[in-house]
Amino acid sequence: MDKSNTDNFNIYSNSDKKIWISTTAYRILFVFQALLKKNRNKKELLELISQNNLINKALSNDTIGATIKTLRTAGCVINRPLKENNYKYEIISTPFNLKISDEEFEILLELRNKFYLEADWQDVFFINDLYEKIFSMTKNDLFIQQEKDTRILNDINRNLLYKLTNHNVVGKKIRIKYISPQYGEEELDIVPKKVNFENGKLYLRCFNFKYNVNSIFHIVRIVDIVDFCIDEKFETENHYEVVYELSGSSIFDFEPADYEYVLEKSKGFIKIKAIVDNEFSFIQRLLQFGSDFKIESPDFLKEKILNIIIQVRKRYENDLNG
Hints:
This protein is an alpha+beta fold. It has helices spanning 23-37, 42-51, 61-73, 102-118, 121-136, 141-149, 158-164, 279-287, 299-321; strands at 9-14, 17-22, 77-78, 91-93, 172-180, 184-198, 201-208, 213-218, 222-233, 240-247, 260-265, 269-276, 293-297.
């Protein structure tokens, strides 16, 4: 090797060894790896390169363009950076096949499902995107389809979700198109408050003007935002406090919701205070505890749950007698 020309070669020192590497080739592989992880624009790629200790030198936009052209020549399908994609490069496909066995495939899915248990909804989208890229490289249609079919939150309209969680929208009155299980498609005026991620599904906690109560909507049923009224902020507090006790087996795996606070805890019971802003959802939660819960206050909620239990009992009695 002619070491007199070192424009495209650097010395990489590893312990006592010195290895000559092509910085051009390394840069191409570095950019390829960076784009596999996420979509990036030229500025982001230049910033990553400047932080790398092997190629940390100032480069131009033209250099990035040439690197992308080389990857395309090698067979990578990379989109053009346009306004619609925030001027970011995205690797659509590569000519390189990733070999994964059936056993490795099952392990990867199991690992993803364990990630899901600890992830918030933003992390779920990141994991889904990462797995989509990984399995697209296998060129195995069966793996690709099975991975897609077993994702959670795969039916969520992300653009709509980001609009609902935008700080300019939260707390403001908007009109949504919603597919109700009872009434079909309808338009509702709401004030978005918070997105909850529970049991692998996304729910929007909001104030519902139709019934003048706080409601929880399954986000997948929200079709679109049809109108905004973001000039005025609406104060829609509508909640009350509940104190209840848990006993029996329910105390061993009890985890307080984000609106609950543990007041007292012993070996035999847990006393909890809940700030309830959605009565229907809270009653559903209590009923899941079966006979292990007891409401201390307020009295009106005791009566309401008692009436629910009486109605359920009558329904079963009618079925048995019928």
